[in-house]
Design brief:
single chain; alpha+beta; Deoxyribonuclease I, Chain A; six-stranded mixed sheet; 14 strands; 20% helix; disordered N terminus
Length: 293
């Protein structure tokens, strides 16, 4: 009888015969979900008196920026009805969900969602206002200077038949209490969903602020995760996402993409697209690629 070393026995137990060569057996691959590409992009409202940066002169660069990243989910801020109409016409293949914040129809800025119809089917969708009466269109509370809302959708991913919630928002730029209470309201609403969740938006605050802590560092249930900070764990002084058409990168991010612990971030970045020194908006879009675990 020939006695073989144990290590050799273990190795022989996991090899397969292929022709005349021995190769390690490969276990069947575990299912891997297709990554989801998300973009959050504050477009700057289209009636602003921006001179050479006015909407008519940059709308095609906005389209190029979106097309270049080719997001599966797209959350926009400061979108007026005519801007939304332009994008819906020129982004074929995307479905649209959004309303004006002033009346729940077409008046005021939208925080709309676009999603690829080839990737997702819509199960249900809605909006709520960031106020003490969230079901009342145009409502505002606390120290908010303007009505603010969340547009959300429950989508089924055609690639794996998995549902998820995607929400998009724009927090008030003046009211610190409104931002805190808005974050709390979103946490409360999302807790009832009990589904994988992605949230994008312009939050008009920094990572050191209380709204971020409420959204990203909540205690008790599984905290939401800032995709960018996972990929870039070391803070940089040049992470600014608002640049006022200057291209300046100094400062802190105020545009964020959060996700629940159901996802693993693969990549996240700030998009610095420009054309001959001109920028598509006064914000840099932020992007993330996530994979469902």
């Amino acid at each position: 009888m020939i006695y073989l070393p144990r290590i050799l026995i273990r190795w022989l137990a996991v090899v397969c015969l292929s022709g005349t060569a021995l190769r390690p057996c490969q276990a069947a691959d575990e299912p891997r979900h297709q990554p989801i590409k998300i973009m959050s992009f504050n477009l700057r409202y289209g009636t602003a008196n921006d001179g050479t940066n006015r909407w008519a002169l940059r709308q095609n660069l906005v389209l190029d920026t979106i097309r270049n990243f080719d997001p599966d989910l797209l959350g926009l801020q400061e979108v007026l009805a005519f801007q939304g109409d332009f994008l819906r016409t020129n982004l074929p293949g995307y479905e649209f969900h959004g309303v004006g914040r002033d009346d729940g129809d077409r008046k005021g800025e939208f925080a709309p969602i676009f999603f690829k119809g080839s990737r997702f089917t819509l199960r249900t969708a809605g909006h709520f206002w960031l106020s003490e009466t969230p079901d009342v269109p145009g409502s505002k509370s606390w120290d908010s200077s303007l009505p603010r809302l969340v547009s959300w959708a429950v989508l089924t991913d055609r690639s794996n038949d998995q549902p998820l919630v995607y929400g998009n928002t724009h927090f008030d730029h003046r009211g610190p209490k409104a931002r805190v209470e808005s974050a709390r309201l979103i946490r409360e609403k999302a807790a009832a969903a009990n589904l994988p969740l992605i949230l994008s938006g312009d939050f008009n605050d920094q990572e050191t602020g209380e709204p971020y802590a409420i959204l990203a560092n909540a205690k008790g249930d599984s905290p939401w995760i800032d995709a960018y900070r996972v990929i870039h764990p070391r803070k940089s002084p040049t992470e600014g996402s608002f640049h006022d058409f200057t291209g300046r990168r100094e400062g802190s991010r105020i545009d964020w993409i959060f996700h629940s612990g159901d996802f693993t971030p693969i990549n996240a970045q700030i998009d610095y697209t420009q054309e001959l020194g001109r920028f598509p908006s006064d914000h840099f879009p932020v992007e993330a690629i996530l994979r469902l675990k």
